[in-house]
Design goal:
The protein is α/β, with parallel strands linked by helices. The protein is built from 13 helices and 8 strands.
Length: 392
């Protein structure tokens, strides 16, 4: 039986945990799934457990010696000075027990999603534990040990001969994925993120366009700090529509960080929950327009664990399943259960209040700057279109 959408999850995914006070906290997964359950928007038949990625699969992207180092670190067998050479044991990416197993399961979850979509078992698949887009070939970075997005994209290429469009709307630049495919013309990466002038990892400039055969297939749109919904969505809509028409993918993989929200403690953008209604809506449309519905989605950043991430990620599933019949208020049972342990007051409604934050004094200037950045980013497409017209 073909499913419309599957939700990749098991309680074992919660073992990807650096410490109790680390900002990357998988309680987001529990909060989101419970919210969906209390809405009756998801059922046990929709949930598919992830498998563990094999070493061979991890080696599609990661160096064998790095994988070995991660294994040793998780067993407490890796000296500190060696660990730090691999980006683990740092303040951002501390060592934790069974680090390899926990991260390989997250990668395996995204591979499970890929197989469901590419074999036609489901049109869409969601692995919210995934989205570890900062991981590099031989180094951990930015809370990310292995890069499930990059491994899955390479897997899609090798096993299914697929052209993959990767769309990253996390507030942080999707650097690990970009560099993994920087010279690959069959993978197109789009990252819309806060400018690196103020935010980790400091990359993602418009000028990063790919190299060799991959030139023209890497797109970056760094947004100015304090960018609001309207400007973000104008940039996103134009970029996704033009890039999809230009690249014509076989499948799309979207990284859905929820940290462009005003309440996020690590970023400086001024989005509201409206972003997380509209971002998946267009991704869904593009998937059906170009890919026969093939859409793999993963999570990512999002560090307001209680008020933002559960709503944003629940809306992603509601879009996948075209389940728009939800009440204005969040389920009372969900608020009652989690409100007892939350350090902040939980929202009562899906939408944010009209005056979530004070007016941004530079709104017009920021909007104009983002518009010019978009034009620069899409310039190669315009050149390509002119060349095509001239040839015809």
């Amino acid at each position: 039986m073909i499913k419309d959408s599957v939700f990749i999850f098991s309680g074992d995914q919660l073992s990807y945990k650096f410490s109790d006070d680390h900002p990357f906290n998988q309680i987001r997964l529990e909060l989101t799934l419970d919210l969906l359950k209390k809405m009756n928007a998801i059922h046990e038949a929709d949930i598919v457990p992830p498998r563990m990625a094999t070493d061979e699969e991890l080696e599609l992207i990661h160096l064998p010696e790095y994988i070995d180092a991660v294994k040793k670190a998780g067993r407490g067998e890796l000296p500190k000075e060696i660990a730090e050479n691999y980006g683990i044991g740092t303040e951002d990416t501390p060592i934790f027990p069974n680090m390899h197993e926990a991260t390989a399961l997250i990668v395996g979850g995204t591979l499970t999603a890929a197989d469901y979509v590419m074999t036609g078992k489901a049109k869409h698949a969601l692995n919210l534990a995934g989205g570890l887009h900062h991981g590099f070939r031989g180094k951990a970075s930015g809370f990310c040990v292995y890069n499930d997005c990059s491994v899955a994209i390479k897997y899609l290429q090798i096993k299914y001969n697929a052209r993959v469009l990767y769309i990253d709307t996390d507030a942080h630049h999707g650097d690990g994925v970009q560099w993994a495919f920087y010279d690959n013309p069959d993978v197109c990466t789009l990252s819309i993120h806060e400018t690196g002038r103020y935010l980790f990892p400091g990359t993602g400039n418009v000028s990063e366009r790919g190299q060799e055969k991959g030139y023209g297939y890497s797109f970056n749109i760094p947004l100015d700090a304090f960018t609001e919904d309207e400007s973000f969505l104008d940039v996103y809509t134009t970029a996704v529509e033009e890039i999809a028409a230009y690249f014509k993918p076989d499948v799309i993989l979207t990284q859905n960080g929820a940290d462009a929200h005003y309440l996020d403690p690590l970023t400086h953008l001024s989005g509201t929950i409206r972003l997380y209604k509209e971002i998946p809506r267009l991704a869904h449309k593009i998937a059906h327009q170009y890919c026969n519905g093939r859409w793999i989605a993963v999570g990512g950043g999002g560090y307001d664990l209680w008020r933002v991430a559960p709503r944003a990620w629940a809306l992603l599933w509601l879009e996948m399943t075209e389940n728009y019949d939800f009440s204005i208020n969040l389920p009372f049972e969900w608020i009652e259960q989690w409100g007892n342990i939350a350090p902040v007051s939980l929202p009562l409604k899906w939408d944010d209040p009209d005056h979530l934050y004070p007016p941004i004094p530079r709104k017009a200037e920021i909007t104009e700057k983002n518009k010019k950045t978009l034009e620069k980013a899409l310039y190669p497409i315009k050149i390509k279109n002119k060349e095509t017209i001239q040839e015809n």
